[in-house]
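Customer escalation, tier 2.

The customer says the design service returned an amino acid string that "doesn't look like it belongs to this structure." They asked us to rerun it and document both sides in this ticket. The original structure tokens are below, unchanged.
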């Protein structure tokens, strides 16, 4: 754990967050994911109506919208070296790149998989060279599909097809190692690959078992040596991959249900988990949870468990779906099922709060995708 002095500083930082801005669009749609531009104060948000929106982070003003996906958007990220490109993947079986300098235009690049497979996760490597999408389970298998990001419109580089037996709900490239990839699935497994190696069997470095359907996977620790896994039934697992060659267990902390966990200091666990993020500047693993009324809980997670850093109230009216932490500005952005995009800052004071309303979409959000016909991919590794 951190020293008492440092922990007090961190607590003060998160406790001081208050509502500084609110954006409520005219149409009531879930906000599913949010990404922050790597060099500019621009936010990208994916919605349950398959649209992508660009917002000014400081004001949350809507800058523009992209439409083109024909299914649920399942991944969203800005390119690292080419930040004018915003990548997204969809259940329609495509990965698309959008020019953020031209809101409202068609996709600048399109990467297609086999139409018999639906994508349910996606990521871009830290070097921007490799795209990967995870598919839902069809009649035979579920796949990790790879493309060269420099070659849109070209067939995938290759696939992995043997490592998961159900929907691949999460793929995450390592933040520093462009060839290291983690994937999570509803089969309960979280796999780590080195995609430089030839075959899928050679590339698979380790498998961690969450013993439940994996919803979210995040690289953690300053050197990216840890993995955080959150499950669909509100479980949490923190694994240390440095233990692979030792007799010590990989799990440094596990909680099968955070709703029943003791979260210090008040002892109450969240009703659900939103996600996690490694905060480089603070040197801590942030886990975000909430309750059905819209309150947001910010927690530190380490070997000793979960510790409450602060609770954000008076913003959302229902379940929070996504968040992003801006370390440079010390600000948090959250989005949820009430269609609201909220900005939280130290000492923030909302300029136009208005009345908080539950604008939850009437459509039912489903984890599982529709069944598919047998795929027609050529089974080969990406390299």
């Amino acid at each position: 754990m951190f020293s008492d002095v440092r922990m007090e500083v961190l607590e003060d930082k998160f406790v001081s967050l208050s509502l500084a801005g609110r954006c409520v669009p005219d149409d009531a749609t879930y906000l599913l994911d949010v990404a922050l531009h790597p060099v500019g104060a621009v936010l990208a948000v994916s919605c349950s109506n398959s649209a992508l929106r660009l917002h000014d982070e400081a004001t949350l003003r809507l800058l523009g919208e992209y439409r083109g996906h024909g299914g649920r958007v399942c991944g969203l990220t800005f390119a690292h070296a080419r930040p004018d490109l915003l990548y997204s993947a969809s259940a329609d079986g495509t990965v698309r790149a959008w020019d953020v300098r031209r809101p409202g235009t068609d996709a600048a690049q399109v990467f297609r998989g086999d139409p018999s497979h639906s994508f349910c996760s996606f990521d871009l490597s830290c070097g921007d060279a490799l795209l990967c999408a995870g598919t839902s389970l069809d009649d035979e298998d579920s796949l990790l599909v790879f493309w060269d990001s420099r070659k849109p419109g070209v067939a995938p580089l290759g696939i992995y097809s043997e490592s998961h037996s159900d929907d691949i709900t999460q793929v995450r490239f390592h933040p520093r190692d462009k060839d290291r990839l983690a994937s999570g699935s509803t089969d309960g497994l979280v796999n780590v690959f080195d995609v430089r190696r030839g075959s899928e069997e050679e590339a698979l470095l380790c498998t961690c078992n969450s013993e439940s359907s994996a919803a979210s996977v995040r690289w953690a620790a300053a050197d990216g040596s840890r993995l955080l896994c959150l499950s669909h039934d509100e479980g949490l697992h923190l694994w240390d991959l440095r233990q692979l060659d030792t007799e010590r267990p990989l799990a440094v902390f596990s909680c099968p249900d955070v709703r029943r966990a003791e979260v210090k200091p008040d002892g109450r666990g969240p009703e659900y988990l939103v996600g996690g993020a490694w905060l480089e500047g603070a040197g801590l693993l942030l886990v975000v949870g909430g309750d059905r009324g819209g309150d947001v809980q910010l927690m530190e997670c380490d070997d000793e468990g979960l510790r409450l850093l602060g609770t954000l109230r008076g913003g959302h009216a229902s379940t929070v779906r996504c968040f992003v932490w801006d370390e440079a500005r010390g600000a948090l952005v959250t989005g949820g099922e009430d269609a609201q995009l909220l900005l939280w800052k130290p000492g923030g004071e909302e300029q136009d709060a208005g009345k908080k309303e539950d604008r939850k979409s009437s459509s039912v959000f489903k984890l599982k995708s529709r069944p598919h016909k047998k795929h027609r991919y050529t089974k080969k590794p990406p390299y």
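Tier 2 assessment: The sequence is consistent with the input. The first strand starts at residue 17 and ends at 23. Confidence is low (pLDDT under 50) at residues 361-376. Sent an explanation to the customer and offered a walkthrough call.
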